[in-house]
Structures are given as C-alpha cells and as structure tokens.
Amino acid sequence: MNDFGVQDARDIDVVVIGAGQAGLSAAYHLRRTGLEPDRDFVVLDHAPRPGGAWQFRWPSLTYGKVHGMHALPGKELTGADPVRPSSEVIGDYFADYEETFGLRVHRPVDVTAVREGEAGRLLVETSEGTYATRALVNATGTWDRPFWPRYPGQETFRGRQLHTAQYPGPEAFAGQRVIVVGGGASGTQHLMEIADHAAATTWVTRREPVWREGPFGEVQGRAAVALVEERVRRGLAPQSVVSVTGLPLNDAIRAARERGILDRQPMFDRITPTGVAWDDGRTVDADVILWATGFRAAIGHLAPLRLREPGGGIRVEGTRAARDPRVHLVGYGPSASTIGANRAGRAAVAEIRDLLRSSPPTAPHPQPAAAR
What we know:
The structure is a single chain. The chain is an alpha/beta fold. It is 23% helix and 21% strand. It has helices at residues 21-32, 86-100, 185-194, 218-233, 242-245, 251-258, 338-358; strands at 10-17, 41-44, 111-116, 122-126, 129-138, 160-163, 177-181, 200-205, 211-212, 247-248, 264-266, 270-272, 275-277, 283-285, 288-291, 316-317, 320-321, 324-329. Helix 1 (21-32) crosses helix 7 (338-358). The longest helix has 21 residues, at 338-358. The protein starts with 9 loop residues before the first strand and ends in a 14-residue tail after the last helix.
C-alpha cells in the first residue's frame, strides 16, 4: 500500500483516470447526471497541463494537419488557426473545457495501482493519496507506452534511435540519413516532413501499406470499428482503428509517391553498427532510426485486478471490463478515436449511474482532515 494507508483512503463514488478526450467526456457526463467534482467523483491526470496526449505532439503537427479531431461533448472547437501547432490549439481547448464545466482536474497525479479494497470498493493508489471508489473510469490512452520492436543487433547501432513519442520535428534531421520504421499515419507524416531536410530517407514496414481511395463515411467507419471491437470482445490486445481502415490516398501522399519518398522497403532482418541489413545481402547506412511503430494501452496500474485474458487484452463488453463490472475502459480498442472516446464516455457513465443506484454506498472510511 502507499504511504497514506488504507485507513486514510478517501471514499468517492467514481474515479476517472486520465483527462484526455475520453476522460473529459466521461467527466462531462458525470456532471450531467448530477454528480459533483471532488465530492462525488474525481478526475486524475498525470500530465503537467491540460491537453491529454496532444500537448506532447511535435510542433510541425499543425491543427490543419490533424485528421478527424472531434469536439468534446457540449462545446465545439471553433475558430482555430490551422497553421498553429495542434498541441497549443487542443491544449487551450481542453483547458477552456475543464474550466467551463468546472471539472477540477487534479494534476499532476500519478496512479500507481488499482486493487481490491473492502466492502466492494476499489482502492486507487496515487501520488496524492488513496481513493476508495465504487466505480472506475480508466481513460489512460496509449501515449505513455510507446512500442519499441526488438531486432538483432539493435544495441550495437552507433547512431540515434528514437520513437514517435520523442519526435522533435523535421529540422532535427537536417543532413542526416534517416530510416523511418512503420506504415501508419505517423510514419508517413514523419517521412514526408523529414525528406525535405535529410540527406537520405528509407522507409521500411512489416506489411505492405494499404492505401484507401474515395470517401470514408459512416458505413465504412462502423465496419472498421466493428473489426477492432471483435478483438476486444475476444480478449485480444486491441488494434488501432487506423490499422483496419488503411491510409487515405490524398494529394500530399500522391506527390510524395511520385517523388519516390514513399518507396516502401520490406522490414530489415537486423541492425548493424552503421545501419540495417537484410538477409539477401542488402544494407542501408543510417545516422538515425525513427521508430513510428505505435503505442500500446497504458493499463499496467490495473494489473492487481487481474483483468487480462489469455489473449493479452482486457475483454470489454461495451466499455465494461468483463471480469469486473466496476471498471470501465474508455478510449480503449474500438473507442480509441476522438468520436469513439466521446461515445464511450457517455456509455460508461450510463452504466455507472445504474451501478451506483443498485448498490448503495457502504459506511465510509475515516476521512483524512484534508479531504473532509
């Protein structure tokens, strides 16, 4: 247990972990049901300021380049400058949203573990103390858990290796030979930016990229979400929605392909001190390897609850963890998009409201003086 001790745990109806799109959506709907921040529910966020993962995006990702940012419930994002960094635009929008609806987000607060407590409550252990809660909304996203694949010889590379989560913008690669690994939206965006500054670029992916032409409407979106949802329902680790939609073939992509920038190579077999190599004898020298290889769900703090299935993921029914109806995961699997996060926040709160009504609160723990 943490230094505050179970006997000093603060009782509360709902704890929301994470103040990105999904967490703020859930907090908004909790308020609409009549629950009060800091009295009935609390929102905990480990980031230093509002903005969720957006606050950490690279400066060259301007708001005009953002694909599919959906407004939070109850307040539109209007009049944003498309050439302003998305980290600033969305950070300011989230900050205004928190203030408008009085969500009183606690930050920076680190959640270290969630475990079984007494009288049917969950204990949420954090850097500001322990909460004993009747329900939990986990909205921690993926940004804090970048995925780094392992390849033979990786530790011998004499150049620089970094992940999308550390991407500083294209100017940092001026005059360098850069290998970009990954066939998703981030990989292609990085590659097209870096190509104008680097001495040379090489693009490698595990699978041949799938390009999508034509409109992508509601029918196609629902079909894509259904594929991701099926994995989660089976208890497998979730894939991103983007992984099943393909990459949009727009004018910028077409121009980059004509210039030879998006000349995809198959995945290399090993890393050497000076670059990468394939078993057929081909080699590419490099100064930098940029891993645009995605992220995994940041749910390690839930480990004490043993929610994972043999397939590696948490089986979710709607937003509710199949192994514990008190736990809701929003922004996880099929809801890991801005519009999906909004819907998941609303759905989770609807179920939590029913849970709170059907199970009256138990006698509270003694409250620490600061919490009374």
